[in-house]
Amino acid sequence: MVRDEIQIIEPWLDHALSLFDQVLVADHRSTDGTLEVLLDRERGSDRLTVYRYIEREFRKEQVISLLRSEAVRLGRFDWLFFLDPDEFLPFRDKQEFTDVLDSADGEDFLHFRWRNCYPDPSASEGVSSFGFRQVRPSKVGKLAISRMAAEDPDILVPIGAHSVTHRVEGPRMGKEVGEIYHFPARSPEQAWRKTLVGTLNRLTVLQAESSSPIHWHYPEALRKLARGDEPDILPLIVHDYGEVKPVSPSGTGDWVRSEFESCSFAFAGLPADESPKPLDDRQGVPGNAAPMSLAQAMNDSVCLELSRRIVAMNDTSGVVPVGDLELTLDRTIRQRANFDERAFAKLPDEAAPGLTMEAVVSAVQASFWDVRHPVASAWSEHVPFLFSLFALLKPRCYVELGVHRGASFLSACQAVASLELETTCVAVDNWVGDAHAGYHDATVFREFTEDLKQYQGFAGYIRAEFSKAVGNFDDGSIDLLHIDGFHSASAVRRDYETWKRKLSRRGVILFHDVNEYRMDFGVWRFWRELRDEFPYIEFGHGHGLGVLVVGEDSPLRTDAPDLPAPASSPMIRDLLQVFFGSVGQLSLQMSNYRASQNDLEAKLSLAREEAAQLSHRVHALERSVEAYRESLSWKLTAPLRGLRTAIRRPG
């Protein structure tokens, strides 16, 4: 699994293809040309297969599991390796490599210990033919598994493939057969970038432990920098990389000389035409080659993006629970609910369902449904109307711009499931937030996608800005559009102008907050302009909701023989306001009641657990006291206790 490895991907491919019969590589959203190199090399080799992993979250363990299944499906092999592009096997050719594998006949797991290295700092990023390696091998390494183990579903390969675990029997050890040369940082610039990324992850990963074995070096590097020191960043990052809390290095030349040695790197598929040079001849001390300052590193575009994420608290690396990943026919790895690259075609010009009295009765009944997802939201009072609207319109494609926790979107999904509609529901958001809705932490998107799993047969998300996501939709591809993004007048106008041509002939648009006047909310102002152009329905409760009937064939425009007037007529609008205003209040009160009830039940459950724990402790103490009283020492000291009682007795 690779991401933005343009400096090393070509030599790594040369190396891997010179040793292995088949190489499967998953690219994770590379933007530096890595994917293009992989695809170009794939066209020239039938032994290289490239997959695209398009999720934002780093789910290496699950991606590797998919590739492992693919390897089993594609053909026979004896051994399966899990290599990163910064790992090289120190064999000069394939014969030397296979000799080592043949010596492990009968084994199911092989262990190759890391030898942490870095190339000469004066060379360009990548792997030069000479550099420096740590004197001793690392305690951490990589495991290879046999085909039999690869086919066993009870054999689990955790993230990093540093170990394997049997689902029932527990951890399994591999036979140690050699080393892997590991280049965790290949230039001072890259080392500083890794430092910033690693430090950010430790700040934002909600469940990070202080004893995390990876990247413990990063805070140390920043602490040195804060004290005014310019640490020897390459050896500092590479030293004991991956081990739990290594000894903090001093950064002096003496320390470097004692921990690293110069060497030549001779890897299969790569040239080795230079000899190592003594440490004293390599710019004084290795790693001192113009290290970047923190300020210089922060000017890098990647680091600026990370800084923005710190403010938004939106980095979710390693936090978001893994949903079900799928491998598509075009070798794309994604979560089933991820619609980032899905295209939505123009909808057929089919007649809309008629607006009959029977349809109206069904829509009214839908407004009294229980709300499955009572998310605390300014939208809550409009959920009954949304249920009725879906029952009435039966939209073929519903798109929501601005989702947050999903109060309205999940309710729309509930309506689709309950009515058994053939509707595609698409949530569009960056899940960063804004000044009006507030900025989100990582749990918002995590909880939304968790709730979405039950609807993933027809519902998904596009995690992007609205202006980018619009490219996924053809004109005429949306029946029902809900605009609920940033609420300034200019922002809502921009969203409307960008998306209106995507509406079908049955198209209807929902605008939230049309009755909200505080701060710089401006939806109400733009809404008043639109009311003069199209038929509409308007609600004043719940911060206001506007329903704009854009499509000429919408049932809300047509006259219904069973009704006294069109749905968007003033008389019907007043009736709808009275009815849904009351039902919305009742629904909100019921949701609040259930939320309070759930909170009380949770507190009661916690109190019961605490009482049970206290009871267990009391019983344990009673047993201890009883055991002590039955002990020999208690019996032998009985006369002394009696004498003490007699002495204390008055008179």
TrEMBL record:
Protein name, UniProt field: Uncharacterized protein
Matches recorded under InterPro entries: Nucleotide-diphossugar_trans, SAM-dependent_MTases_sf
GO molecular function, a single term: methyltransferase activity
Coiled-coil regions listed: 590-631
One GO CC term, this protein: plasma membrane
Organism superkingdom: Bacteria
Source organism of this protein record: Rubellimicrobium mesophilum DSM 19309
Classification lineage: Bacteria, Pseudomonadati, Pseudomonadota, Alphaproteobacteria, Rhodobacterales
Keywords, comma-separated and alphabetical: Coiled coil, Methyltransferase, Transferase
Gene3D superfamilies in UniProt: Spore Coat Polysaccharide Biosynthesis Protein SpsA, Chain A (3.90.550.10), Vaccinia Virus protein VP39 (3.40.50.150)
A Pfam family it matches: Methyltransf_24
An annotated GO BP: methylation
